[in-house]
Each structure stands twice: as structure tokens, then as C-alpha cells.
Amino acid sequence: MAVSIKWVLILAVLLLESGCWDSKPIQNMVYVTAIGLDYEEGNFIVHVQTLNFSNVAKSENFEIGKNVPVWLGRGEGKTVSEALSSIYATSQVRVYWGHVRAIIFSDRMLNATDSVKHAYDAINRYREVRYNILVYGTKEPMTKILTQKSIFNFSPLESIMDTPEDSYSQRSFIPPQYGYRLIAEVSEPGRTAMLPSLATVDDSWTEDQKKKSMFKVDGAYMVNTQELRGWFSGDDLKGARWLYKKMKRAIVNIPGNGDPIAALVLKLPKHRIETYLENGELRFNITVEVQAYVDEMVQNTSTKKMEQEAEAVVREEIKSTYLKGVSKQTDILNLLGELYEKKYKIWKKFSDENQLVLKEDTLNKIIVHVRITNTGTYKGKVN
Which residues, including other chains, have CB under 8 Å from residue 73's CB and lie 6 or more apart? Predict the structure, then answer.
């Protein structure tokens, strides 16, 4: 009886241990946090950014300013899947994809036919990868982008590439883009999708007297029906921000040209797009309503004049961005997307007749209303 109990206990211990044989300590795995995709001479080239989470996990012993090493892996293949899989050959330990937070496409990748949709589809067939991945384009070498550090030597997980919402909440310029939304937008015939472009700048921050390179979103690639329409700089895209639903705040000097009389913070814009036909031609009117408060007063000016000057700035930015798009037949303001959603029959008719063409007068009116809700400690004139 004692012998049988002994063997039962031994068997139970073996069964419990067998359940842990396939487990891996977290420090003995490769965690991919970002993927860079390039395309050259018919081959897909993949760079993966990997981090050791024992170095970046915040704990009582976490040391601000400590340099966090970044390891990059490189793979190549005729398909994205083959390029990703080739990394396994030299990874030494298991590769885990569940912490991927960003995908970056090179210029060459974006110019390849159906590259964005094809690559995103391949990556999302990895069951560990999530759908809410940030996506970017870049003109810079992928190795430079993926080894970029953050301020105070924080890990890349604390940079604009991985946490853009923090920066966007203070300066709402080009909104973050997520993979699931990008695929939906490029698959919709009437809509033009915006893919932020990442760059590095080394003339804004220093550590003591040593220049430190930092990320900047310097513009965006515009994609329509899976075709790259071109790259536009941040200045080109200024007017588009007033039509973003999630735009939070932006600072503008008034007037737009010449010496400023004040700086205003404009926030929470609301817009309406009216589509109609005039003598058989497409026409659009845009109405924007936005709140504002005074951030800096250079000259004592009436509230009414500041509102009028701000309205002129917003109106001119929208018009300028629209005309930048017309020059490349790119619907930056998504006017045709609005037509597709609200008046599909008209969109279909013009599409079938190849008349979905943007002209300078296609955008007819731009109506802007700015209301200053707070002048702060500055007591400007009421009238």
C-alpha cells in the first residue's frame, strides 16, 4: 500500500512538471517591437527591432538615462512571409511577435504594387500580432529609424514612433495612423488615406553640448485605392488638420503673414462638407467652426479682430492644402470620399465617365467661424 502511494505521488509530480516543459523564461525570448519593410530588385527586405524587456521594464531599480541597447534582425525573401521566417534561422532563441507596435514602410516599398495591403495581410496572419499597430512611411534608412532612441535615453517604446498620441495631444498636426484603419481606407474607392512619414532631426535637442537625434513626423504619404499618390510635407498639409475629427489643439499666429499681433490656440474644430452640382460640374463647400483662446498677446487687439484674423488663417491653410492636392490630383481633404459616402450615385456616375477630376474651382466656398472663449490674463478690447 505504501509503495503504491509512493508511485502515485511520483506520477503526480511528473504530470505537473510536464506542463511547464514548453514554457520559456521571458528573458530568453526575442521580443519584436517594430518591423521595417523594404523592397529591392523583386525581394522583400525585413528589419525587426527587438528589445530585452528586462532592460526596459519599469521597476524600483529602473534607471532614467541608462542606455538601452536595440538589436536588429534582417531577413530577405520573395514574399514578406519568407523574409520574416528567414529571421528564425539566426535568432538563436524563440521570436515572439505579440509586442509589435509599429510597422514602417520604405519609399521603395510604398511604390511597389499593392505593397501595403500585401505586407499587412502577411504580418497579420501571425496570430500573435495585434490589429492596432501604428503604421508609417519613411525616406530614411530603415536601420537608422529602428535604432533611434528617445529623450533621456528612454527605450524606443517611449518615442513618437510607438506613443504618438502624447505628442499629438499637444500639437495636433498629422494624426497617428493604425494598420486596421489604413487597410479600410485604401480599400474604399472614394477615400484617400494618410500615412505619416517618420524622419530624424538632430538640431533641436542636445545632451549637455552633444546633439541628440530625435523623431519627427515631417509629412505624409497619400494613398488612394492602394496606389501611392505622392508625399506631402507638413507645410503642404496644414489645412487638412482643420478637418480631422480628433484634432485637439494647434497654435497659430495672427495674421498669417507679417508681424504677429497675437498667438492663438485653436481647438476641437467641427466641419461640414456640402456637395452639389453646378452646370454639371462637381462643387464643394466647407464650413469649419473652431474654438480658440489667447496664448500670447503681442499687441492690444479686440477679440473680434483676432477672431477675424484667425478665420483668415484657417481659410487660407485649407485652400493652400487643397491646391497642393490639385497639382497632383490627390484628394488630400477627402472631398471625393465625402461624395462617395453621402451621394454615391453621383460619385458612381462621375467615376464611370472618368470625371472625378479636381479643379481649382471644384472647392467653391470655405466658411470659417472662430470663437475665442478665453483671453486668459490678457484683457483685450471687446469690440
Answer: 30, 32, 47, 48, 50, 87, 90, 91
